[in-house]
TrEMBL record:
Annotated site residue numbers, Transition state stabilizer: R15, K22, H256, T355
Region listing for 2-C-methyl-D-erythritol 4-phosphate cytidylyltransferase, in residue ranges: 1-223
Molecular function (Gene Ontology), one example: 2-C-methyl-D-erythritol 2,4-cyclodiphosphate synthase activity
Originating organism: Pseudooceanicola spongiae
UniProt: a divalent metal cation binding residues: D230, H232, H264
Names of the cofactor(s): a divalent metal cation
Site (described: Positions MEP for the nucleophilic attack): R146, K199
Protein name as it appears in the record: Bifunctional enzyme IspD/IspF
CDD domains xrefs: CDP-ME_synthetase, MECDP_synthase
Region described as 2-C-methyl-D-erythritol 2,4-cyclodiphosphate synthase: 224-379
Superkingdom of origin organism: Bacteria
Keywords per UniProt: Isoprene biosynthesis, Lyase, Metal-binding, Multifunctional enzyme, Nucleotidyltransferase, Transferase
Length: 379
């Protein structure tokens, strides 16, 4: 059983103004939605449903793992559309989060999940620290006790099956899912919210959110570099696998796997950045199951390991060293294939080649060498 997430992103952000809905506006170099999805992915929730406005269903740049669902005219209708994608036989808990809360600390998500071990529902709240007034136009018409009042945040977490039933029974118009759950008699445990977890609502909230993200990143950013180097000898054949593309040649590369020397160097660069050894440690050549293996298996493993350890790969640079075959005509296809395997943007992957001026084993065309660098950033 898993803990799933629904990110509601089908609103139009009218109060935030702007040319596009607030979730597609830029914040510190990325869209609001990218920060939010990233935070929820880092929290380890899966699957992640992103509920989009019908006009936004084809929006580019969302991680390929997220499931896109068309939302409704109100927040609760959008949540119901997301819930319809989840199977209570597979998913135990669901955390529902506003796309407009991109700075949610991992500790808040973790507190909600931990509370769900013992409660059927849990949500973050923050004390009201200012005095409260009632207003009559621009004059104070009374005061409101703040005793027992909390400011509600998301993600709000629930046991999936009773929440689906609660939404089915609700007449609509709820401000949040806690309201829906309580109307169905569910008991909701309160956990500590966080001041960083603001909901971008008004134009001035973007600057506040950006300052929070900058502070969070300054505190947590960890940049790691790794390098990888590999060599494979030629043998008779009809082409070489290089960075995921079979390049026609009058020779092949010899190896236990498909001998993709470029992909091996890149994979080792990622393992190196993580201080996780090399391909041989994870896929021993002595193990017959890896004989003839396609090297994308190794690269995908290194990428997944980076993610599990809390890193995203910022860029990769790989140089193939050979006289023949010529790499230039195939470099774009290699870049696209490597992007496909790693889930990275193609413009963050560089594949290039050099000769060794006919010197050494590459110069004598006895084999191909590859050197690669990868930069990993704490996610
Ligand atoms: N039909 C709707 C309305 C809202 N939301 C989502 O619910 C969250 C909280 O809503 P709010 O902050 O009010 O967002 P908007 O409705 O987009 O903003 P506004 O009310 O200013 O138009 C947001 O993540 C929003 O995208 C949604 O998925 N579907
Ligand atoms: C769910 C919510 O974020 C809790 O604070 C909030 O109710 C949704 O936003 P809105 O501004 O009330 O539409």
């Amino acid at each position: 059983m898993t803990d799933a997430a629904i990110i509601v992103a089908a609103g139009r952000g009218t109060r935030a103004k702007g040319q596009t809905a607030k979730q597609w506006q830029m914040l510190g170099g990325r869209r609001v939605a990218d920060w939010t999805i990233d935070a929820i992915q880092r929290a380890g929730l899966s699957p992640i449903i992103v509920v989009l406005h019908p006009d936004d269903m084809a929006v580019s740049g969302l991680p390929k793992e997220v499931i896109r669902v068309a939302g409704g005219a109100s927040r609760d209708a959008s949540v119901r559309a997301g819930l319809a994608e989840l199977d209570p036989a597979v998913v135990r808990n669901v955390l529902i989060h506003d796309v407009a809360r991109p700075c949610v600390p991992l500790s808040v998500v973790a507190a909600v999940r931990a509370a769900l071990d013992h409660s059927e529902a849990a949500a973050p709240g923050l004390a009201v620290t200012d005095a409260l007034w009632r207003a009559d136009d621009d004059h104070v018409s009374g005061v409101q006790s703040r005793e027992g009042l909390l400011r509600a945040q998301t993600p709000q977490g629930f046991r999936l099956a009773p929440l689906i039933a609660a939404h089915a029974a609700h007449p609509g118009g709820a401000a949040d899912d806690v309201e829906v759950a309580r109307a169905a008699g569910m008991s909701v445990r309160i956990v500590a919210g966080h001041e960083d977890n603001l909901k971008i609502t008004l134009p001035e909230d973007f600057a506040r959110a950006e300052a929070i993200l900058n502070r969070q990143q300054d505190r947590s950013m960890d940049i790691r570099l790794g390098n990888g180097f590999d060599v494979h000898a030629f043998e008779p054949g009809d082409g070489c696998w290089l960075c995921g593309i079979k390049v026609p040649h009058d020779k092949a590369l010899k190896g236990h796997s498909d001998a993709d020397v470029g992909m091996h160097a890149v994979t080792d660069a990622i393992y190196g950045a993580l201080a996780e050894g090399d391909i041989g440690r994870h896929f021993p050549p002595s193990d017959p199951q890896w004989k003839g293996a396609e090297s994308h298996i190794f690269l995908a493993h290194a990428v997944a390991l980076a993610k599990t350890k809390g890193y995203r790969i910022s860029n990769i640079d790989c140089t193939l060293i050979c006289e023949q075959p010529k790499v230039g005509p195939h470099a774009s296809a290699m870049q696209a294939r490597m992007a496909d395997i790693t889930g990275m943007q193609a413009d963050r992957i560089s594949i290039k080649a050099t000769t060794s001026e006919k010197l050494g084993f590459t110069g004598r065309e006895e084999g191909i060498a590859a050197i690669a660098t990868a930069t990993l950033i704490s996610a």
